[in-house]
Amino acid sequence: MSANQPGSSLYKAFKQDIQAGRLPVGTPLKQTELAQRYGVSRIPVRDAIKQLMAEGWLAQHGKRGVMIPPLDPTEAEDLYLMRMYLEPLILTHAIPHLSHQTLGQAQDLLQQLDDTTLDPHQHGALNWSFHALLYQAAQRPVLYQTIADLHRQCARYIGYQSLTLDYLHTSQAEHHDLLDAIRDKNTRLAKSILKQHISEAGEQLVAYLRGLSDTVAQP
Amino acid sequence: MSANQPGSSLYKAFKQDIQAGRLPVGTPLKQTELAQRYGVSRIPVRDAIKQLMAEGWLAQHGKRGVMIPPLDPTEAEDLYLMRMYLEPLILTHAIPHLSHQTLGQAQDLLQQLDDTTLDPHQHGALNWSFHALLYQAAQRPVLYQTIADLHRQCARYIGYQSLTLDYLHTSQAEHHDLLDAIRDKNTRLAKSILKQHISEAGEQLVAYLRGLSDTVAQP
DNA sequence: TTTTGCATAAATGTATACAAATATAAAAAT
DNA sequence: ATTTTTATATTTGTATACATTTATGCAAAA
């Protein structure tokens, strides 16, 4: 098999199990157990662990072993803070290159996002598709990759959160406004809408996470 | 052995060999050859490769094998662009927390940077120590880590570049101005100096890299 | 009862060996 | 001569086996 690229079946299955919360958070994971779980030897498990650690899905647990790092509101806050600055930046570079065809595709994705029966994971994936489509036009591979990494990190946090209908409507309205501003080549407006949009999403998530830790961590 | 944390001797030796240009750029590296070079089996070599790939020191070469990615001016440009936005951001968060002691340490580092006999690697390391000292005070681990990663990526590019004495003087003057602004708690000024400082460093590097590819790539 | 030391057990790191996949070269056909 | 096919060699991916390190539990001493 073409094994351990981000595309290895073990890597994918492992990551999905982390995302879906099917593995314990904060406790050390044993290589042997993981090998049994996925029906392979420890070597490919080690390879996958290395990669997932580098991507932030796993963290060192003491001197030995790895764990799924617990959710941390401050971490989420930082991720959204960075997105607030980097995404308007890449959007600026993207706008001059956006074709009518791409804008049409973006419009299509927006319509799919109107479906309020989507679960948080599906919604998150579609949402990223929309933004990614716009950002890729900037033709800035390294900048794009960093932003994609930030989204990947954020993806670990959403999916727990059940979004209110009210928030979903606001978010969608902003998406439409953003696309309109882009069509008008009004870069300044587009940037400010996007920054606001990310800021709100961040606040929503951080508030949710802080609520969680308040109810859970009772000494 | 405590093997493959970023601290494994193999990982360190391997990365240093890449940084120092002791391994061929752009051609596939054979696991067997690397294993022989470092006197170990292929397993730890594979572990190190995984990690270095995730950190950007190595890249996929076609379907099989890895290579040291060639230097790319556009990539460097993106890295500095991101730093221009993220470093002033973290500095803003850091300034309220900076103690007199930390500012004193920063002053010390600045004096060491006056030494113009340093080679590019030493200079780069000291320069990062100075900035890192300030940034850590922000107590924003995730934001800090991302910025540190960007610097690590940049480190692959500098070290080839021989900095002009003129640039070194300008750069040091900016460092002093920055520290003064921070002492005055003049956040606005500090941010603008820092952004300018990074912008100049980026332009210097990108110009150098473009010069390189112009002279090398003759069909 | 608490703490220190040691013995045992568990888990990770590495080497060797083998299987699968890809690239290379040579031979055959057009 | 060029292209396609086939066989060979090289290289990577994985499993098993062993060495090394860290954790755990028990006993003895304070």
From TrEMBL, chains A, B:
Pfam families to which the protein is assigned, alphabetical: FCD, GntR
Keyword Nucleotide-binding: no
Coiled coil: none
Keywords of the record: DNA-binding, Transcription, Transcription regulation
Keyword Transcription regulation: yes
Database matches in SMART domains: FCD, HTH_GNTR
PROSITE patterns: HTH_GNTR
CDD domains: WHTH_GntR
HTH gntR-type domain location: 4-71
Name the record gives this protein: GntR family transcriptional regulator
Organism per entry: Fluctibacter halophilus
Lineage, uppermost ranks: Bacteria, Pseudomonadati, Pseudomonadota, Gammaproteobacteria, Alteromonadales
